[in-house]
């Protein structure tokens, strides 16, 4: 199962009669409600997925800003989106795959055949392919999820990982170094974490770099297949984008879902600032 699908391969799948369910996962931090953009124009047949309500559950603040949905809730959403057993699910967004990767990661870890449209909505439009406007109602699907290893680490496991493996902060350098707190109550990074921004894995067109290019980036930080590694970001969204990039390079990375939004809301947790993995230390 390929993690990515190109526009050309997607149109071939659609023309070939394969059952494909398209999921539009448009979301970004500065514009979390993507439905207006979806209604204005989306890939024909695509169903809108609300990241804030369907790929996240309501939780306590100390769990972070985007706690993971339960298996039952995610399964109910999939059936509501019209996904049937055996369907190929293709997810996309208009934000370099960052939001769509959250869906890719959640579904892949639960046994769904899912690929992310490389280049997303922009690549489809640039190819001159048609769009559909308005909402899309679909008949309920019948898919069932497997309750398997979700591929996550807890806050305590994330704290210990720099001693046994590699913990990667995928946020922009200014957030890692503690220059801005963004949406969270404190700025900085988890002591011992290294910084590999998720944006380093995409090119100027918003497509993922080649597996060899990604492997070279990871190798420069001592990361290769078999090395224990976990990823975190601001709230567990961008980390899944990096998880996809790592998967393309043949590295199975775990994700700390609560990420910095949980760490910075947990009293007593140490905070490191600066460019080094262990810099100036303070506490939440």
From TrEMBL:
Listed InterPro entries: Rhodanese-like_dom (IPR001763), Rhodanese-like_dom_sf (IPR036873), Thiosulphate_STrfase_CS (IPR001307), TST/MPST-like (IPR045078)
Keywords of the record: Repeat, Transferase
Boundaries of every Rhodanese domain copy: 16-133, 161-272
CDD domains noted in UniProt: TST_Repeat_1, TST_Repeat_2
Short name of any one Pfam family annotated for the protein: Rhodanese
Protein name, per record: Sulfurtransferase
Natural source organism: Microbacterium terricola
């Amino acid at each position: 199962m390929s993690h990515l699908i190109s526009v050309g391969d997607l149109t071939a799948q659609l023309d070939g009669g394969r059952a494909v369910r398209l999921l539009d996962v448009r979301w970004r931090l500065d514009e979390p409600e993507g439905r207006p953009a979806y209604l204005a124009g989306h890939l024909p047949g695509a169903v809108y997925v609300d990241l804030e309500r369907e790929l996240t559950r309501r939780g306590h603040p100390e769990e972070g800003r985007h706690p993971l949905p339960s298996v039952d809730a995610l399964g109910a959403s999939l059936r509501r989106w019209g996904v049937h057993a055996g369907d190929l699910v293709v997810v996309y967004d208009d934000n370099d795959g960052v939001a769509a990767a959250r869906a890719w990661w959640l579904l892949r870890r639960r046994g769904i055949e899912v690929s992310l449209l490389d280049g997303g909505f922009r690549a489809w439009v640039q190819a001159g392919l048609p769009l559909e406007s308005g909402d899309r109602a679909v008949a309920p699907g019948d898919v069932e999820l497997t309750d398997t290893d979700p591929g996550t680490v807890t806050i305590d496991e994330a704290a210990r990982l720099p001693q046994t493996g590699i913990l990667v902060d995928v946020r922009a350098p200014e957030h890692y170094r503690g220059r801005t707190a963004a949406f969270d109550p404190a700025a900085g990074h988890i002591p011992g974490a290294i910084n590999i921004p998720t944006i380093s894995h995409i090119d100027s067109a918003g497509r993922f770099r080649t597996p060899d290019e990604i492997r070279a980036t990871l190798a420069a930080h001592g990361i290769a297949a078999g090395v224990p590694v976990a990823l975190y970001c601001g709230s567990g969204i961008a980390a899944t984008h990096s998880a996809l990039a790592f998967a393309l390079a043949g590295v199975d990375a775990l994700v700390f879902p609560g990420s910095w939004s949980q760490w910075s809301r947990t009293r007593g947790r140490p905070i490191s600032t600066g460019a080094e993995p262990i810099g100036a230390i303070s506490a939440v």
